[in-house]
Amino acid sequence: MLMNPGVVLGLVVLAIMATALTNWLVRRLGPPPAGPSATLVAHLVWILLLSAAGLIAARYIERVTHAIVGYLLFGLVALGLSLVRAILYRRTGSQPAADGWPLVLHTLTCGLFALVVYLLIALLARGSADPWLFIPLFVGTLLPDLDPLTSTEKRWEHRGAWHTPAVNLGVAAVTAPLIPLIGSEGWKAISLGFFCHLVMDLFSQQGIMLLWPFRHTRYCLFPLFESPGCVAGRWVTAGLAVVALLLLLMVDLGPPPPAPWPSYEQSLERFHSLQGRNLVSADVEGTWQATGRRVNARFEVLNAVGQSFILLDRYSGTVFSAGRTASDNFYLDRIAIVAGAPAQIRPVELHLQDETLAAALPLLYQMQREPGVQHIFISGDLVLAAGQGSALQPDYALTRLPKIQKVAEGNAPTYRLQYLTAGELIPQAHLRVEVADLVIVATYVRPASGPTATALPSPPPSTPEAEP
Questions:
Q1: Which one, 19, 21, 100, 305, has the greatest CB density within 10 A?
Q2: What contacts 145, CB < 8 A, 6 or more positions away?
Q3: Considering only CA atoms, which of 198, 195, 196 is closest in space to residue 208?
Q4: Residue 311 in 3-state DSSP?
Q5: CA-CA distance, 105 to 120, in Å (whole number)?
Q6: Could you report the per-residue pLDDT of 436-457, keeping only the tens digit for each?
């Protein structure tokens, strides 16, 4: 999502303030057992994780009408999680202050080794490296030293279960939600950094438990590091720095070229080829016409009318038009169609004359009971019977399709319905119409074992009895 830089900066400041405030509150309970070096590393990693969570949450917060309320709620959640983290961190402790320099040297060695490995892979694969990936790579090398499972007073003499390949797999699973934010390459870089840290620990006297949790035997390839601050370790660090510098001179630094987006016309053709056979989503970049807010997100495609797409935001339930005309709710800069699960679309035309809208309810309830139903939408034109007055309230929304539009005035006003949900039509079931031409469209996923849509409300008591 292309967000305002002020929003990104605000989320980072929020993460820093929440971490600092909760640390201060917990420190008031007693002297902290942690020294400055490991404490700083732990705080930096927490701030990065909290900022990443805020950016992911912002992808959804920015879609609602009152975004400030969403950010306030996220701030409270961030403060609560930071307080829990500060209490747990104080209880587990961290690296003693006396071991600060060996910890820095060890962290630097692991970081340089991870950088060398990444540069070699990039050089052999495509000849270029993305400097932005150095950040998740270095974060991955820090994670093994944030060990809540081992004794902090014997960190260098005792390596616990945290320094194992099994935990590396767990870290990969836990950080998977970051993929929409940092991309798959950034996600892989975190695991690569963790793995490189484990490889360097294989050359320490303590070794690591490669087969944990099945075996607790420690393995050491070669005891190169007799202690964290030994002379051999310093030479290894210097050598890795030289190799990393040479590789940086050999590879091209810069992000890989972005994949080409299909043309607008190609996306239209792609949708029409999938319509009725698959659920269809679209990765879009563009701007809301009413607010000017930039958006980069994925929405479900319901239909294509002329040169405009009809999109559904499943998060908020909003249906809006997207295209390249002034009448569209959303102006599309780029769009790429993505095919989903096999689906079936069932449109039913319904003609009503001199009767209430309740006549359409049995069909809606029948569709609702059918296995695999995803959603039901109703569109069409209707003329209210005389004496109904302004029973239907027109919708003047600017950031979505107006669900109810008044087409003509008079004693029997004419209205146009656009993508009303079944739940929105049922409360209007008591209205009598002179004539109504409706199209009810239901989407089903195949195969399906049961209904997947939300249960519909019962008809109003004043309407003729409809099948529930």
A1: 19
A2: 38, 41, 95, 103, 106, 107, 155, 197
A3: 198
A4: strand
A5: 23
A6: 999 999 998 877 655 555 566 6
- What distance, in Å, lies between the first and last C-alpha atoms of the chain? 42
71-103 burial, b if ≥16 CB within 10 A, otherwise e? Answer: beebbeebbebbbebbeebbebbbbbeebeebb
144-148, 198-202, 442-446: range with highest mean pLDDT: 442-446
Query: What is the sign, positive or negative, of the torsion defined by CA atoms of 192, 193, 194, 198?
Result: positive
The sign of the torsion formed by the CA atoms of 377, 393, 307, 350 equals: positive
- Measure CA 405 to chain center: 34
> Beta strand pairing status for 318-323 and 330-356?
parallel
- Identify the CA nearest to 81 among candidates 47, 109, 110: 47
Characterise 189 by phi-psi region: left (phi > 0), alpha (psi -120 to 50), beta (else).
Answer: alpha
Q: Please state, in angstroms and rounded to a whole number, the distance separating the CA atoms of residues 143 and 171.
A: 9
Shortest CA distance to 234 belongs to which of 134, 339, 108, 140? 108
The SS3 assignment for 211 reads coil
The structure tokens listed for 72 are: 């306030």
Residue for token pair 């109904």: 388
Q: How far apart are CA 435 and CA 335, in angstroms?
A: 39
Retrieve residue 190's tokens.
């975190």
- Interatomic CA distance for residues 359 and 367, integer angstroms: 14
Nearest to 225 by CA among 241, 202, 245: 202
Helix axes 179-201, 165-174, angle to 10 degrees: 170
Coil vs helix vs strand at 308:
strand
CA dist 96 → 26, 29, 152, 159, 413 (Å): 18, 19, 7, 15, 79
Q: What is the 3-state secondary structure (H, E, C) of 91-121?
A: HHCCCCHHHHHHHHHHHHHHHHHHHHHHHHH
Residues 181 and 155: their CA atoms lie apart, in Å, by 33
Residue type present at position 425: L
Pair of tokens at residue 425: 């039509």
- CB neighbour list of residue 183: distance below 8 Å, 6 or more residues apart: none
By residue count, the chain amounts to 468
Domains of the chain with bracketed CATH: 5-199+245-253 (no CATH), 264-341 (2.30.30.690), 345-445 (no CATH)
Q: List C-alpha distances in Å: 378 to 132, 156, 243, 265, 423.
A: 47, 67, 65, 28, 10
Lowest-confidence segment of 9-18, 37-46, 66-75, 166-175 by average pLDDT: 37-46
Nearest-Å Rg of the Cα atoms of the chain is 30
